Amino acid sequence: MEEVENYQEEFGITIIYxxxxxxxxxxxxxxxxxxxxxxxxxFVLNSDIACNVDLNEMKDDFMRSHxxxxxxxxxxxxxxxxxxxxxxxxxxxxxxxKPKKIEGSGPWLINAGIYVLSHEVLxxxxxxxxxxxxxxxxxxxxxGVLHAFKFEGYWMDIGQPVDYLKGQQLAIENMETDDxxxxxxxxxxxxxxxxxxxxxxxxxxxxxxxxxxxxxVVIGRNVKIGSNVNLKDCTLxxxxxxxxxxxxxxxxxxxxxxxxxxxxxxxxxxxGEGTIVQEGSCLKGCRTEPNSKFE
Length: 295
Fold this sequence. Notes:
Blueprint: H1 2-11, H2 28-32, H3 34-37, E1 41-45, E2 49-51, H4 55-64, E3 69-76, E4 84-88, E5 91-96, E6 108-118, H5 132-142, E7 146-151, E8 155-157, H6 161-174, H7 178-185, E9 188-189, E10 205-206, E11 210-212, E12 217-219, E13 223-225, E14 230-236, E15 241-242, E16 247-253, E17 258-259, E18 264-266, E19 270-271, E20 276-277, E21 282-284, E22 293-294
Parallel strand pairs: 3-7, 9-11, 12-14, 13-15, 14-16, 15-17, 16-18, 16-19, 17-20, 18-21, 20-22
Antiparallel strand pairs: 1-6, 2-8, 3-6, 4-5, 10-13, 11-12
Domain Mannose-1-phosphate guanyltransferase C-terminal: 215-292
Pathway: Nucleotide-sugar biosynthesis; GDP-alpha-D-mannose biosynthesis; GDP-alpha-D-mannose from alpha-D-mannose 1-phosphate (GTP route): step 1/1
Protein name: mannose-1-phosphate guanylyltransferase
């Protein structure tokens, strides 16, 4: 919640929280937020994807269509992780949920997790646990009022740690210029490769954040980094402290964590907020809850 409040202040926007007393699935929350959505059109976005879709283009396509909903779609060769979409032109005709096996050859069109919906969709939604993919979209498709927005940029599901880091690399690689990338996150570049020496940063602090394009490293704001630190394919979130002689590879380090000297974080570790890894420890492939401590 604190991070979201910081975003409100930083970007000058208002964020309204919608709290569920019990899980409402992917459609029920829209009923919970109905008072904010009536009489307008709106985006619905899954938060576990990385892509470079132009949302303005998607909105304009929706405004030109006679649909009451459009779905971002993307072509993949292996459809078994995703729900498939069958279309005629841009009109969605039917869906197939995550097939275990499928005949024929790809590419296959999938639901890419971003939607533009008219307030008219709300009449199909109830305040209960409800799936927009299984219970709402098939009805809209049957009524002929659901269209596809076919997207050809980069797209990736980043719901798993290994995919998150691949998605991070995709995002870095697909920025048109370093300046654009750095402006997006308010960061400054690391040019010296995988070695991060405090002599190049006042007091060893990364105040604005850093991007290392070559090694797929993102360092959040106010991170303190010691000498002889090796980073590759990793993310260090804000306010983390990394002491001397630490290695972090293929891992995600949560906000406000502390990695004491001579420790190693390897093989897709995900460290929760406030994790402390004590001197000389080696963690491989672990998941930690917030405020954990490892000796």
